[in-house]
Amino acid sequence: ISTYFTIFNLLLSESISYDSIHNFPVNVRNRIESVLSYDAANSWKCLSREGAVIPPENDKVKKIYDELKNEYISKKSLSLDAAFIIFTQKPYGLCEEIIMLLIAVLVSSMNFGTKVSYRNNLYSISDWKGLLTSERKSISEYERKRIITIVKDSALIQVDTGAVEEKFLKLLNEIDVNKNLKKFPVLEKDLNE
Questions:
Q1: Alpha-carbon distance 20 to 88, whole Å?
Q2: For 47-61, what is the HEC assignment?
Q3: Nearest to 36 by CA among 4, 67, 68, 66
Q4: DSSP for 92-141?
Q5: What are phi and psi of 37, to 5 degrees?
Q6: For the chain, is the Cβ count within 10 Å smaller at the N or the C terminus?
Q7: How far is CA 91 from the centre of its chain?
Q8: Predicted TM-score of the model (pTM)
Q9: Three-state secondary structure call for residue 46
């Protein structure tokens, strides 16, 4: 079980590479390669040879991924609880850990312009991941349920990237033209928000 949560965290980290994969224990590396790798025969084929997360190319997984993606794009949001309800039942019958990996692949491949709503708060992907992660090597059943509950109680939300981009460009321009050293801490704070 903890192997799936390790892979889930890796997919959400936005820093996946073959070097980072090779830092994991053999059992985790083998699972990553057998489930995600482009080269493994029955894998999802959602980890390119360069180490980038891409939409799955395995036909069965792609069908489920496309359902999630199309729902997210058409409604500009995706209730993760609804995804669990749909995909744990027939005809899919997926376990919760596999659904979490599918969600992580979706989030990783569409992370720009995506926020996560949890308990009426919007989180960046990395901040949401912070709510979920456990530093422990093994995950207790209680911790497993806690993480899955947070994921189920969350929703992916599309944000207007045009407004974000405009705000960012305006802030960069302010930084560029600023000559007042006392204003830099304020600009740095704005940039970090």
A1: 31
A2: ECCCCCECCCCCHHH
A3: 4
A4: T---HHHHHHHHHHHHHHT-TTEEEEETTEEE-HHHHHHHH----SS--H
A5: -55, 145
A6: C
A7: 25
A8: 0.80
A9: coil
Q: Is the peptide bond before 56 cis (omega within 30 degrees of 0)?
A: no
| Burial of 169 (C-beta count, 10 Å sphere; 0-12/13-18/19+) | exposed
Tell me, what DSSP letter sits at residue 182? G
CA–CA distance, 115 with 159 (Å, rounded to integer): 7
pLDDT in tens, 108-127: 988 878 999 999 999 999 89
∠7-36-142 over CA atoms, to 5°? 30
Place of tokens 């699972």: 31
Place of tokens 């995706």: 78
Tell me which H or E stretch contains 12. helix 2-12
- The enclosing H or E element of 148 equals helix 141-152
Side chain identity, residue 3: T
CA dihedral sign of residues 52, 136, 127, 77? positive
